[in-house]
């Protein structure tokens, strides 16, 4: 086997190039599909299915990244294999030893009478760099690689968080990527012997007498080669068609008129918009895409809906977290100018839709990450007011972690209303909420300690006191497991990845090995 590989290493490289290209195209089919919102539409279509079937769709971003990594790996394999091939082509063109490789290199080239060439290096003076930038396959390959590098590097966490516009525009270079991918095979660099030539000159029989090809002494003629027809379009046609259809659908939905009914500016630079739109229907925890043409015609940003399905409007809360959000908030703060026009697409489903499928729910929000749980808690308030007996959830644990006291302000009214509603209905124990302040100093802590005996919290005005620091998750999960020894507990997070790792570990640690006892299921919002 080792000797065969040594003697046929060129064939092995060609097979690697071919295999790498096809695997790459197969993976790219999935990437093109799941990067569009068709992935979210699929989740909605599967809404009638079990939670187990829909749960993998909530990890679409993780799958998106995994597919991108696989594309990078197979692109590298593809490029390296081609570089080895071109090095062999160059040596064969320069060889003067009359070997089979050198004879095949002298077959006619495109500028000559025939088109039966095998070696793309057309003369001893031709370099690999020249072929890379003058041939269709080489030039499109360079563009594809350059675009891929730009897309991957600009998608790093630091750039996405701090320079979102750079990430957003660079990621849309995929249009150039797709065009070059469709044209990449037109050059016919990877070639094979034609069927007609194969029937006249069998490779195994004629390869031994290559020096006598075309003479009376040999029955073998000069072989003829042709490039493989382009195949990439077959792989990308279906996902591109789906993507175009999805864009047309989004364009149609976004052009439906949105009426802004109320604008509220909360502390900590949080803007609340209440809106109405014809035919708009939502569920708890869903989100929408928002575009403000006066800021940017092309940028669409996701925002979680903070209203409840029972309300006659839908709302979002926007925190200043970048250039676009700062300009967005500033546009609505200007009282003497006309209200900016916005476009809305959605809503789209998330894991939070499944919160009412659990007997016990643990909701964890960090900063503005509390927004999906605002929708959930509002909906619970309406369900209790209307005596909804279909509510499966028996207990909710709510944790909100914030850096500054002002962040609690806009949510206090809702929590206060829920406290009063639970007391009136005799269900004080239904909602157990805890607020954690991580950005505090000795003055704040001292002031809170001095007024600890008061009926309401000095910082929030709620009956539940504010905790200083971060939750001790092991203690919290242990208490929940003890209180609900035979329940299925859904843990929902909207927050940073570091917190997600801690909660995921706790879910595994405190889930019983006995399926009849307490089980924790972790769910995280992904945007």
UniProtKB/TrEMBL annotation:
<dbReference type="InterPro" id="IPR017938">
    <property type="entry name" value="Riboflavin_synthase-like_b-brl"/>
</dbReference>
<keyword id="KW-0812">Transmembrane</keyword>
<feature type="transmembrane region" description="Helical">
    <location>
        <begin position="128"/>
        <end position="154"/>
    </location>
</feature>
<dbReference type="InterPro" id="IPR013130">
    <property type="entry name" value="Fe3_Rdtase_TM_dom"/>
</dbReference>
<dbReference type="InterPro" id="IPR039261">
    <property type="entry name" value="FNR_nucleotide-bd"/>
</dbReference>
<feature type="transmembrane region" description="Helical">
    <location>
        <begin position="66"/>
        <end position="84"/>
    </location>
</feature>
<dbReference type="Pfam" id="PF01794">
    <property type="entry name" value="Ferric_reduct"/>
</dbReference>
<feature type="transmembrane region" description="Helical">
    <location>
        <begin position="6"/>
        <end position="31"/>
    </location>
</feature>
<dbReference type="GO" id="GO:0016175">
    <property type="term" value="F:superoxide-generating NAD(P)H oxidase activity"/>
</dbReference>
<keyword id="KW-1003">Cell membrane</keyword>
<keyword id="KW-0408">Iron</keyword>
<dbReference type="GO" id="GO:0006952">
    <property type="term" value="P:defense response"/>
</dbReference>
<dbReference type="GO" id="GO:0042554">
    <property type="term" value="P:superoxide anion generation"/>
</dbReference>
<dbReference type="InterPro" id="IPR013121">
    <property type="entry name" value="Fe_red_NAD-bd_6"/>
</dbReference>
<dbReference type="Pfam" id="PF08030">
    <property type="entry name" value="NAD_binding_6"/>
</dbReference>
<dbReference type="InterPro" id="IPR017927">
    <property type="entry name" value="FAD-bd_FR_type"/>
</dbReference>
<dbReference type="GO" id="GO:0046872">
    <property type="term" value="F:metal ion binding"/>
</dbReference>
<keyword id="KW-0479">Metal-binding</keyword>
<dbReference type="InterPro" id="IPR050369">
    <property type="entry name" value="RBOH/FRE"/>
</dbReference>
<keyword id="KW-0560">Oxidoreductase</keyword>
<keyword id="KW-0349">Heme</keyword>
<dbReference type="InterPro" id="IPR000778">
    <property type="entry name" value="Cyt_b245_heavy_chain"/>
</dbReference>
<feature type="transmembrane region" description="Helical">
    <location>
        <begin position="166"/>
        <end position="190"/>
    </location>
</feature>
<protein>
    <submittedName>
        <fullName>NADPH oxidase 1</fullName>
    </submittedName>
</protein>
<dbReference type="GO" id="GO:0043020">
    <property type="term" value="C:NADPH oxidase complex"/>
</dbReference>
<keyword id="KW-0325">Glycoprotein</keyword>
<dbReference type="Pfam" id="PF08022">
    <property type="entry name" value="FAD_binding_8"/>
</dbReference>
<feature type="domain" description="FAD-binding FR-type">
    <location>
        <begin position="247"/>
        <end position="354"/>
    </location>
</feature>
<dbReference type="InterPro" id="IPR013112">
    <property type="entry name" value="FAD-bd_8"/>
</dbReference>
<keyword id="KW-0472">Membrane</keyword>
<keyword id="KW-1133">Transmembrane helix</keyword>
């Amino acid at each position: 086997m080792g000797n065969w590989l040594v003697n046929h290493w060129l064939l092995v490289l060609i097979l690697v190039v071919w295999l790498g290209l096809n695997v790459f195209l197969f993976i790219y089919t999935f990437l093109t599909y799941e990067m569009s919102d068709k992935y979210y539409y699929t989740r909605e279509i599967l809404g009638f299915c079990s939670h187990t079937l829909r749960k993998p769709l909530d990890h679409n971003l993780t799958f998106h990244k995994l597919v991108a990594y696989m594309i990078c790996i197979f692109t590298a394999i593809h490029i390296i294999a081609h570089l080895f091939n071109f090095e062999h082509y160059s040596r064969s063109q320069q060889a003067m030893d009359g070997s089979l490789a050198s004879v095949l290199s002298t077959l006619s080239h495109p500028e000559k009478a025939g088109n039966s060439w095998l070696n793309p290096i057309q003369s001893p003076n031709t370099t690999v760099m020249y072929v890379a930038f003058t041939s269709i396959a080489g030039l499109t390959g360079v563009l594809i690689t350059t675009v891929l590098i730009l897309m991957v590097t600009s998608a790093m966490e630091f750039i996405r968080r701090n320079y979102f516009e750079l990430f957003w525009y660079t990621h849309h270079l995929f249009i150039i990527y797709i065009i070059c991918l469709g044209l990449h095979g037109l050059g016919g660099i990877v070639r094979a012997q034609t069927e007609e030539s194969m029937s006249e000159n069998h490779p195994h029989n004629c390869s031994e007498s290559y020096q006598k090809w075309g003479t009376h002494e040999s029955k073998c003629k000069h072989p003829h080669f042709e490039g493989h027809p382009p195949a990439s379009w077959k792989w990308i046609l279906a996902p591109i068609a789906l993507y175009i259809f999805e864009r047309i659908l989004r364009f149609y939905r976004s052009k439906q008129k949105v009426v802004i009914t109320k604008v509220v500016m909360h502390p900590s630079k949080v803007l609340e918009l209440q809106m109405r739109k014809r035919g708009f229907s939502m569920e708890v925890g869903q989100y929408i895409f928002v575009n403000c043409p006066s800021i940017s015609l092309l940028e669409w940003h996701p925002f979680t809906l903070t209203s409840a399905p029972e309300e006659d409007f839908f709302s979002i809360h926007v925190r200043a977290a970048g250039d676009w959000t700062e300009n967005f908030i500033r546009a609505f703060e200007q009282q003497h100018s006309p209200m900016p026009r916005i476009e809305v697409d959605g809503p789209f489903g998330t894991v939070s839709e499944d919160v009412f499928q659990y007997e016990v729910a643990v909701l964890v929000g960090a900063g503005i990450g509390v927004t999906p749980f605002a929708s959930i808690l509002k909906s619970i308030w309406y369900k209790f007011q209307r005596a909804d007996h279909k509510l499966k959830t028996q207990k909710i644990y709510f944790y909100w972690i914030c850096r500054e006291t002002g962040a609690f302000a806009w949510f206090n009214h809702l929590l206060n209303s829920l406290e009063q509603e639970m007391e009136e209905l005799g269900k004080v124990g239904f909602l157990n909420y805890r607020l954690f302040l991580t950005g505090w100093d000795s003055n704040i802590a001292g002031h809170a300690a001095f007024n600890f005996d008061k009926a309401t919290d000095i910082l929030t005005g709620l009956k539940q006191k504010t905790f200083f620091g971060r939750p001790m998750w092991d203690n919290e999960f242990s208490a929940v497991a003890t209180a609900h020894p035979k329940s299925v507990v859904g843990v929902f997070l909207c927050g940073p990845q570091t917190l997600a790792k801690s909660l995921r570990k706790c879910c595994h640690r405190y889930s019983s090995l006995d399926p009849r006892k307490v089980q924790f299921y972790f769910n995280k919002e992904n945007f």
